[in-house]
Design a protein that fits this description.
Two copies of one chain form a homodimer. The first copy, chain A, is of the alpha/beta class. The first copy, chain A, contains 14 helices and 17 strands. In chain A, strand 5, helix 5 and strand 6 form a beta-alpha-beta unit. Chains A and B meet through helix 2, helix 6, strand 12 and helix 12 of A and helix 2, helix 6, strand 12 and helix 12 of B.
Chain lengths: 412, 412
């Protein structure tokens, strides 16, 4: 009999318990053993659930119970989750989590403890909700060198951008619609500023490249600066604006960023709308593989947690699985060395002069148009240009025009 | 040291050897042991490869060598592969294959032997080339009940349909272009008649539903009947014609078919072009998840084979993994009980009378148009209708009009 503890009875926690009991006979046949949830840890009271007898408030009951071999952490945040998970792994218990902050900040350390103790630390639900991505990245593509990852990793921002693109809704209106529908939090910063996407690309990049990528080292730009004008110009470009988490292998180091980007409508990422997520993985042997589905939600995320529970129960005391090392501080490259195409939107003092200057600095421009374009407005796509040079050139150009928008153009 | 044998040195076999040695150090660290290919079995001579000393022509050298624990079967076809694989599993060796015909026809039997002998029989490369699909279906979605699968499973036919849709190329021209580019065989029947897609949906359905779905029980319709007129009407419908392998859970039984279908351009499957494949999996907890990538090709397929080699080497003598049972003969439902919408194209003796009759039988019609539509031509989408009734009604309608096209409309 495998005895499990669930820490946290919020959306994901209650979903996990629900999915677990709904599919228990199938789960047991996959584990090859009977299984049960012995404890549910939550400081709040949940009277009248069918699991009344399982609720506890004292973490030490779990830590000190030798019957418990697999613990699910779905509290979220670093505190107290980090301390809890560390103690559990050190006590020789396998841990399953959906906590992206925990994995993005402390993954290497926790994986190291898990390996030492020959137990497992799994986190399929931390990226892409119910989309299988962590395990396929690790297992199924194990014969590949993964060169690049580009993903729409946050459903809230993708919903907002979809509303802006398809319905011409302004950012603020789209955000409040998302809030009304429960897709965005009252404080939407973690989503719209790109921090959620940043944690997720850190996890994917760490796994793909084998060394920890820390959020603090990743250039992160959200979608609060994206305007309806940008969206309209992107339509003329023949694509859609998406918030992309991006990671690329550069020799022994890595380039990683989160930013809004123009994506050609030919791309499999351009058609990913509403709250859906999609992750493109470029392997040296497989070419591009894309995983698509609901990136959040109670049941999708819970099903990812439960699939990890099954694997942890099957593989307990056999930690040959996920792993990455810690990294030194310059593992992630500064963006300055990268080259990208940029979309730029200007309000010009002298349009002819501004465009001439831009073309001098940035190569042949692809000029874009939109309905209701004002006379002194100009928008274009540059040639590929070094990021640092682009920043410096923008300072020069700003003497001739106000730069109202600049968004990278990524090629997938 | 894990000693491996590769049977068959064609496209996939030589790719497997190439990917194996290219990534050997990474592979060994994932296995947790040294690994080498000891034999390559092929009746043909391959002089001057770096592996000259490994080639053998006698299968029994592999079968009787106790050092060999993992054998790769990439010969293809049922004969001699079936006999070889069966003997190997019975001798306690794990087998990895890319052979969809073998798995679709003999999967239940071979999985049963593997389980008895506590070894593994893996076949990630048999569906979707380098797209991870078999293992994600089994593992990552193990907390789901999988209700439905719909896939673009054959790159050759998808290439032909893409040429017809995007370039207005006729079927025959698109086929010969595919042949010139090496995407289609000189005898293209297995692809264009749908047999290749049929084997693949059988494998996916067997895994998803836990019982063997045999190709002979699956209604299979290829794309040879799809015309440019159909493609044009589908454009007016707002979608694309795709060859779909489809499987749906129906209580304790399954509905499975392969047929061309109108797919709305809103669907993630509609934008899958050229030789790409995509597989949509509908789970009761995850909702729709889509896996997209190159469904064939030397290196993608080889990388799937090598990832199975890694797993087989790690898990040898531990066969808790993939499994499905044999099924009785009526596990797969006859199509007659299903309901679908249909696209129908008519050349009418009396157009008004034909459309009136069609609407009487099939509910409110959505009439479609195309450029250069002839005066006596009519095309429409029916309401949802029982498959058997539709067939019978077509006989009635054919007194008023010649039925030039009928294609199912699937909703994803």
């Amino acid at each position: 009999m495998v005895k499990i503890a669930v820490m946290g009875y919020g959306v994901v926690g209650s979903g996990t318990v629900e999915v677990f009991y709904k599919n228990l006979s199938g789960i047991e046949s996959k584990i090859g053993d009977k299984a049960d949830i012995k404890y549910i840890l939550d400081l709040r009271d949940f009277k009248g659930t069918p699991y009344d007898d399982k609720f506890i408030k004292d973490f030490n009951l779990i830590l000190n119970d030798p019957e418990i071999t697999v613990v699910v952490e779905v509290i979220g945040g670093l505190n107290p989750s980090y301390g809890f998970v560390k103690s559990l792994l050190e006590a020789g218990k396998s841990v399953v989590t959906s906590n992206k902050e925990l994995v993005a900040e402390k993954g290497a350390e926790l994986l190291h403890i898990a390996r030492e103790k020959k137990v497992n630390f799994f986190f399929e639900a931390s990226v892409g909700g119910g989309i299988p991505i962590i395990r396929p990245l690790h297992h199924c593509m194990s014969a590949n060198e993964i060169d690049e990852i580009a993903g729409i990793l946050n459903g809230t921002t993708n919903f907002i951008l979809t509303k802006m693109i398809n319905e011409g809704m302004a950012f603020d209106d789209a955000l409040s619609t998302a809030q009304k529908l429960g897709y965005a939090e009252r404080n939407p910063a973690a989503d719209v500023e790109g921090h959620d996407s940043c944690r997720k690309i850190c996890i994917l990049a760490s796994l793909a490249f084998g060394k920890h990528v820390y959020p603090k080292d990743v250039y992160t730009e959200g979608i609060t600066g994206v305007t309806l004008e940008d969206v309209q110009y992107c339509n003329d470009f023949g694509g859609a604006v998406k918030l992309i988490g991006w990671a690329s292998r550069r020799g022994e180091r890595a380039a990683v960023m989160v930013c809004p980007a123009f994506i050609s409508s030919e791309s499999q990422l351009a058609g990913v709308n509403d709250v859906f997520n999609a992750i493109l993985v470029r392997g040296d042997a497989t070419g591009d593989v894309v995983f698509y589905g609901k990136g959040a939600g109670k049941l999708p995320t819970a099903s990812a947690v439960v699939s990890d529970i099954i694997m942890a129960a099957k593989m307990h005391n056999n930690s040959k699985s996920l792993y990455w090392e810690d990294s030194d501080k310059d593992f992630v490259l500064d963006l300055s060395g990268l080259e990208n195409k940029f979309y730029v939107r200007l309000i010009c003092k002298d349009k002819t002069a501004a465009l001439k200057k831009a073309e001098e600095m940035w190569g042949k421009l692809k000029v874009l148009h939109r309905d209701d374009e004002s006379e002194n407005e100009a928008a274009f796509i540059t040639a590929k240009i070094n990021e640092r040079k682009f920043r410096e050139d923008c300072a020069v150009l700003s003497e001739l025009a106000e730069i109202k928008g600049k968004i990278r153009v990524l090629d997938y």
